[in-house]
Design goal:
about 270 residues; mainly alpha
């Protein structure tokens, strides 16, 4: 059997790109929700900053809201971009064809990761530009910190995406809602809009077990204290590595379970 093929990965990406190009509502939807989120929280940030004064602690804390919204959208869209490309195969009843083709599982998963990045660029990058225009917040001005934030968030998003896709393989479209809802369970525990100290003491260890917490704490440290917390990023990356390995193992076992149960041909039902 031939080894890993980037040509097959490219072919899968081409398929998903054609799907996006053939449906402009898909492209609009990818940008619409991040833009609504950015405007809503951006105007709230403007209100808090004006009420508290730009130099007060309240004003500085409010300044982190729009940055948190943009990073949250990166996390959410990366996960949904991964899962939605997989769902396209279920909706079109094409999954069995792919599994019987020379396409390796690893190639399929890499193509899903790559397409999540494409969807992320289409959906979130324009919104970061609008944030500069509307509110004067330039995410890209944070420099290399943005790259560190992105890596930690993307790896966590792909871990969740792998688990969701495994559940879809095993239980079919009955588990479809996980693609939309599972990440929102992470939002309150990931301390997107408030520090970990705001949580009850018994919940704080749970929050620190999630990589996004390290990113959003790092964002607040950068914007409020003007200090980049590299230690937080390394800790978040270490947890990401463990979660990604667990998610990959879970996907493999759920796929094997779907094969044993004979549910692969019914995933579109």
């Amino acid at each position: 059997m031939s080894g890993f093929s980037f040509a097959r990965v490219g072919a899968m990406m081409l398929r998903y790109t054609y799907l996006l190009r053939s449906s402009w509502p898909r492209v609009v939807e990818m940008t619409y929700w991040p833009m609504v989120q950015m405007l809503t929280w951006g105007f709230l940030q403007s209100y808090f900053s004006a009420a508290g004064g730009a130099r007060s602690f309240t004003g500085k804390l409010a300044g982190t809201l729009i940055g948190a919204v943009l990073l949250w959208d990166i996390l959410l869209r990366a996960q949904q971009g991964f899962a939605f490309s997989f769902l396209e195969e279920l909706w079109s009843r094409n999954l069995a064809n792919l599994l019987m083709s020379p396409l390796r599982t690893s190639e399929f998963l890499v193509s899903l990761m790559a397409m999540s990045l494409v969807r992320l660029v289409v959906g979130v990058v324009p919104v970061t530009i609008l944030a500069i225009w509307f509110f004067g917040f330039n995410l890209w001005a944070l420099g290399l910190a943005v790259a560190a934030f992105f890596v930690v968030l993307a790896l966590f998003a792909w871990s969740i995406g792998l688990f969701v896709c495994g559940m879809l393989l095993r239980y079919g479209l009955g588990a479809e809602n996980l693609a939309w809802s599972l990440m929102f369970v992470v939002q309150p525990l990931g301390c997107v809009y408030y520090p970990v100290a705001a949580l009850p003491s018994w919940l704080q260890p749970v929050a620190w077990s999630l990589p996004p917490t390290y990113v959003f704490e790092g964002l607040r440290g950068l914007l409020i204290d003007h200090v980049f917390r590299g230690d937080l990023m390394m800790e978040g990356l270490a947890i990401d590595a463990v979660l990604f390995a667990v998610a990959t193992l879970s996907f493999s076992r759920l796929l094997a379970g779907a094969r044993r149960a004979g549910t692969l041909l019914q995933t579109g039902e």
